[in-house]
Amino acid sequence: MSFPWSKEYTPSHPLMVWLDEKLPLPRLVYGAVGGGYEVPRNLNYMWNFGFLAGLCLMIQIVTGVVLAMHYGGDTKVAFDSTEHIMRDVNWGWMLRYGHANGASAFFVVVYAHIFRGFYYGSYKAPREMIWLLGVVIFLLMMATAFMGYVLPWGQMSFWGAQVITGLFSAIPLVGDPLREWLLGGFSPDNATLNRFFSLHFLLPFVILGVVILHVWALHIPGSSNPTGVEVKSESDTVPFFPYFVGKDGWTIGLFMLIYSAFVFFMPNALGHPDNYIPANPMQTPAHIVPEWYFWPFYAILRAFTVDFLIVPAKLMGVLAMFAAILVWFFLPWLDRSPVRSANYRPLYRKFFWVLVLDVAVLAYCGGAPAEEPFVMISQIASLYYFLHFFVIVPVVSSIERPDPLPYSITEAVLGTDESAKLDGNG
């Protein structure tokens, strides 16, 4: 959002003046992430995860493009080409480990970004479009990550593709033809690998396009903040550059230290050892699991074990798994509380932390074998997950008595802000 007090871009060098007239790219950057973009002065470190998500996307695109130069998208050579990258390509091991761990890092920061939105009510008006585009990005990320997991063509790649694409066969009438169309045959094979490789290469650029829309939508109402109170005066904001650029820079340094620790010292900690075994359609692994970032939704899928009337358990599991994400689209309208931030919503705040614990339990059960007591725990946790969004959030937003809000952001940070009150009263 451009406030009346936002600084204008005024180039002084003749070259920059000429460029601003012909192609005002510096002006766009200055107004988007520079001194011309005013942001609430009280943003905490939870707001850094959006920037880190953008950094992770860039890491994935750069490493992915270089890896694609050496990868063979054929079932006869895919596994060997992956080993070739690791052993023969200069710095290939670092590129592959950086890409594999970059996917996990991407999901870590995106999950933190999403739950920050849950806590601070970032999905509420006037920021609904930002939230909806963010959910679209998450769905595209999941599709991209799944297809990328198939490419090494190891045991877990093959059988993961077999299980996940098998979910489509649960759809009545069109399920089996849809699965065969997706795979290019009756089971994962060369056609599957080719199309997954093509889509895995394409989708990150689609994600980048939606990210641009996400940021564009953000700049219309401006950033939210921990109080949930809208900007009222100049004292409520500071320029994005240099204040939050410096803050983001510090966070990037910390992120790169942790990310590098995984890449260089424990690169396979988040992967599955079976994926170092070439794909064998005749030998099923004892325990088929997706990557860790899918575990909560995988637990919801497996929580349905009994048919309900004419609806098979498999179909209910598939519908519930997709509904677990699609419900986020309706969150701006399910939560009717006039207060955004959970800092001022004592009852909602308690249920938020129960949700965090619930998702952690689902993740643990999703990575565990499909046996008791994990199935029963998954069923209880899945029930609570849907109750949280469809029942608890609407009911709490109706009956809760929020704490008093500060008049302005400045008041929340520095105490009483008389100047802002005067400005607000005109």
Q: How does this model look, in words?
A:
It contains 17 helices and 2 strands. The chain has a two-stranded antiparallel ribbon. Helix 3 (49-68) packs antiparallel against helix 9 and helix 5 (92-120) packs antiparallel against helix 6 (128-150). With 426 residues, the chain is mainly alpha-helical.
Write a compact overview of the structure shown.
The protein has 426 residues and is an all-alpha fold.
Key terms:
mainly alpha; 2 strands
Q: Topology, pairings included?
A:
Elements: H1 14-22, H2 25-33, E1 38-40, H3 49-68, H4 78-87, H5 92-120, H6 128-150, H7 155-166, H8 175-183, H9 190-219, E2 237-239, H10 240-265, H11 295-302, H12 313-326, H13 331-334, H14 346-367, H15 374-399, H16 409-414, H17 418-424
Antiparallel strand pairs: 1-2
Q: What is the number of helical segments per DSSP (H or I, 4+ residues)?
A: 17
Radius of gyration equals 24 Å
Report the order of strands and helices.
Answer: HHEHHHHHHHEHHHHHHHH
Strand order of the largest sheet: 1-2
What number is the mean pLDDT? 94
Strand tally is 2
Percentage beta strand: under 5%
Supply the helix-strand structural class: mainly alpha
- What is the 3D shape? globular
Could you name the ranges where pLDDT drops below 50 across 5 or more consecutive residues?
A: none
Helical residue percent?
55-70%
